[in-house]
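Readers of this paper often ask what the protein records in our data store actually look like. Such a record has a labelled line for the sequence and another for the backbone structure tokens. The tokens are whole numbers drawn from a learned vocabulary of local backbone shapes. We quote a single record here, exactly as it is kept in our systems:
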Amino acid sequence: MIHPIPQKNNLTGSPVEIKSLRFEGDFKAAAEKVAEGYSLLSPNGFGVDIRCSDSRRTTYIDEISRLTDEKYFITVTENKVLIEASCEKGVFRAAHTLAKLVKNGEVKTGTLEDYPLFIKRGYIEGFYGNTWKNEKRVSVMKLMASYGMNSFFYAPKDDLYHREKWRELYPEKELAELKSLFDVAKENCLDFYWAVGPGLTYKYTSDSDFEQLINKFMSLYDIGIRGFGLLLDDISWEFRYEEDSKAFDGIVDAHIYLVNKTYNALKKIDPAITLTVCPTQYSGDANGYYVSKFGSGIPSDVSLFWTGAEICSRVLTVGEADELLRSTRHRPLYWDNYPVNDCEMFQEMHLGALIGRDKELYKHCEGLISNVMEYAECSKIPLMTVADFLWNPTAYDPEKSLKNAHREMLGDDAELFGYFADHLGVSCLSKYSSAFMSETLMKIAFLETSGKKDEAFALFEEYISSMRKCLALISDTSVPLFEEMQKWVRKFSMCCDLLDAIYEARKDPSDGAKAALAEMLEKYNSDAVVLTGFCLREAAEKTLEKM
């Protein structure tokens, strides 16, 4: 099975063996670049014709009654493949799907029809913490584009020129790096949005501040960017300057004034420019005074960020989305604070699949933008599940999506990695973790109480052995994914030691074994890094009670 799951996959006929691909027709270069990334491009490859037409068939999605530039068809016969789309973006999406089918050996005769259901699908580098290096950004961009995302927002809180030094233009080197990122995004059919957060020091009555803000936008416009963000999140609810407090009845009035003034200035420069804003109240009561007035007071084509009922929302529902629309006259563009693990969550590693998002949400919102962790490689795993959900929420299966993400990142080591990933499910989405460990320990306990101690110890030994093999795998810091996880790897090592101590205490319940187990349990519990559910501590405590 390929991911994201296509909407209508009727490639169910005879298998067609394809080793490589050769393209002819519209936007041939775009398809060739995709195939090259999968090492499938060859002048002697299986023939693929590309035809683009601006027809209802290739541009309209019935489920959401909207036009799209991302719809495509793949028709396979025994001696030819035909890609049909409306433009380059559709060809790009089709080429990725075809390449995945070839790699998985899933090419059969028939027709595949595919298109996304969420309009905006992407991620935002909007966390507090160490910003990503450009090579990491490029790596994530390319992977997310291959999974059907179409939007990237650049807004790292610790980029000084995004927030603290918003008045200052980027130095030449940093601006060139942003230009290179924009170019990569364009090549991979990702809309690139650059956002600024001036609210810490902005003076709403200052013509100079406004001029500097527009100059900052224009410096990014000059390198090709047409999507901009104005972020007013995580700032004071009080005016900083006396002139502002005298000029406006309240902070919301100042924010409406700033957004409208910015919108008008940008549209005067180029009507193609788009603006996304984040209000100071970006979660909670959708009928609150601030957000109701703010949303109603800004242009209807300005996108409005919203995180849901909570800053890190466990669920996002259709009802909540409709409530925001009624209140603000804007469909929410969800800033989904998952898998981000900054602030109070810094001891957690969020590697679970996306859950808790209504499968009908695509009909009621503008899109969903996932806020990532400062750990770029780790972010790829949950982001792939986000991408799967956003492309085809009706067919989304969190467990299968997560397993695919593990395979994408780890290949043949994916199953072994699962012994570690089992313990990294705690987040705003779920407080439960270690499902497989819990199941295994319960089986061991059942065998022991049933008088089958030899079987219980054999299962315990097998589990510990697999955990140790997994520890050896993830201890290799030359692998970028594992290097980012070392804080949790160290805790996992203690987890293995604690399991050993439990095993030894049950096998030989001596005073020495009891003391060793108690010491190891205290050491494990004293480490604040979040790993494993209650089942491990429970197994240790029950073992001590019985000794």
